[in-house]
Amino acid sequence: MNQFDHALEQLARATAVQSFDPALIRKISSPEREVRVTIPVVMDDGATRLFEGYRVQHSSVRGPYKGGIRFHADADIHEVRALAFWMTLKCAVANIPMGGGKGGITVDPKELSAGELERLSRGFVRMLYPVLGPKVDVPAPDVNTTPEIMSWMVDEYATLTGDTTGAAFTGKPLGKGGSEGRALATGLGGFYVFEALKDKLGVPQSSRVVVQGMGNVGGNAAKLFQQHGHTVIAISDSKSAIVKDDGLDIAAVEAYKKEHKTLVGFPGARSISNEELLELSCDVLIPAALEHQVTHVNATRIQAKVILELANGPTTPEADDVLFANGVVVVPDILANAGGVVVSSFEWEQNLKNEHWTEQVVFEKLQTLISTEANTVWERAHALHTDLRRAAFIVALERLGVH
After folding, report:
1. Which entry of 190, 264, 349, 377 is 20 to 30 Å from 18 by CA?
2. 104 and 251 share one domain
3. Structure confidence at residue 235 (pLDDT)
4. How many whole angstroms separate alpha carbon 298 and alpha carbon 274?
5. H or E segment at 54?
6. Residue 185 sits in the same domain as residue 255
7. Residues 199 and 168 occupy one common structural domain
8. What are 146-164's pLDDT values in tens digits?
9. Domain containing residue 268: CATH number
C-alpha cells in the first residue's frame, strides 16, 4: 500500500461513520492538478544533470494551495499526492483559508554543493511559476528544505513575475518576510493540542513521554514537554534510541549528539532499538519522524495511553482499528501537527498586509485557533462514538462541503 492508498483508506473509514455527498468524496479523492517537471541543472563540473520534480495541487476549495516542498531521494508522486491530500484536510481542520498542495524533487541534497542546490531550487520555480503565486499556490519548506532555499525561490519568483509581496512562499528567513515563531510552530502547535485535551485524555498532570525523532519537530516537542513539567523518558534519532526511566535532560542530549554525532553512550541512559522505543510503557508517545511506524504488526504491543502524531502518516489504518479497540487515543496528524501550516498562513497574511507580528502575537493566535479546533474534533468524536482521526476527517469534510 502506497501512502495515497493509505490516505484513501482513512477517508473510507471516516465516511463509514458519517455519510457525505458522493460528489464531494469523488472530488476529494483526486487532486485538481498534478505537475511533473524535469529540471536541468548545470553542475559544478560543467555537466548538466536532470532532476525530476513534482507539485500536486489537491484542492483549492477553501483557498490557495498550501504545502511544503521536500528534497529527498525517495520522493515520488504517490508520497507527494498523499501529503497534498492530508494538507487539504489539515487546513480545513485548522479552519484556515487555504487548500492543500505538496511538492518534491527526487534528490539527495547532501550530494549537492550550495551552488548546485541554489540552481536546483531556482530551476524548480522556473518550471512551475505559472501555477504558483500568492492567490494560487503558496509552497513552504518541508523535508531537507530550509528558509534559505525558500529565499532563493521567492527571489526567483519575484524576478520572473515582478511580485513584490513575498507571499508566494512561506518559511522564509525573518529578514526576508518570514514570520516570528515559524521554527517552533509544529512542535508548539502539537503541545497546544495536547494541553487543550490533556484533562479529557486522562493522562497525569506530569506525564511520561516518549519521542521518536529529534529533528526540528521532535526536538522542539521534547523540550517543550520537559519545560512544562513532563518527563521525557526516551528519544531517538534516525540511527539510535535511548531511554532513561527517571527522565532525560533534552538540552544535554542535544549537546551530546552534536559533539558525538550519535545518541549511543549518553551518560545514564541505555540504548534500545526504534521498535523497542515505540513499545515502551508511557503516557504519551510522540511519533515525529517517519510514516508507517505504528502498524498492524506492532499495534497490539503499544503501551502508550495517547499517541500524539507530529509526523505525517505514522499510524496505518489497520493499526488505528487495533489502537481504538485497545483504548489508545490517537491524536491525528491533521490536527496534532497543524501548527506549522497555521503559522505559515500567518506569514502569508502578514506578507499580503505588509505587517510583521511579534512572536507573542503569533503564539497567542496559534494557541487560540488550535485549541478551539482540538476541542471541536474531540466533541465530534464523542458525539459520534468514534476515534479522533475519523472525527477530524468528518470536521474537515463538512467544511469542504459547504464551499
Report:
1. 190
2. no
3. 98
4. 12
5. strand 48-59
6. yes
7. no
8. 999 999 999 999 999 999 9
9. 3.40.50.720
Q: Quote the domain boundaries for residue 257.
A: 179-403
CATH of the domain at 115: 3.40.50.10860
Residues of the chain with pLDDT > 90: what percent? 96
pLDDT, residue 143, reads 87
Helix (H, G, I), strand (E, B) or coil at 373: helix
In 3D space, the residue among 149, 171, 167 whose CA is nearest the CA of residue 158 turns out to be 167
pLDDT tens digits, residue range 375-403?
999 999 999 999 999 999 999 999 999 86
What lies within 8 Å, CB to CB, of 12 at 6+ separation is none
Residues 266 and 380 in one domain: yes
209 in helix, strand or coil? strand
**Looking at the structure, do residues 121 and 199 belong to the same domain, yes or no?**
no
Q: What angle do CA 248, 288, 296 make, to 5 degrees?
A: 110
* Closest among 2, 119, 128, 8 to 67, alpha carbons compared: 128
Active site amino acids: 102
C-alpha cell at 215: 529533528
Query: CA–CA distance from 95 to each of 22, 87, 195, 394 (Å)?
Result: 23, 12, 19, 13
**Is residue 300 classed as helix, strand or coil in its secondary structure?**
helix
72 and 143 share one domain = yes
Are the C-beta atoms of 232 and 220 separated by less than 8 Å?
Answer: no
| Whether residue 299 has pLDDT greater than 90 | yes
What tens digit of pLDDT does each residue of 272-283 get? 999 999 999 999
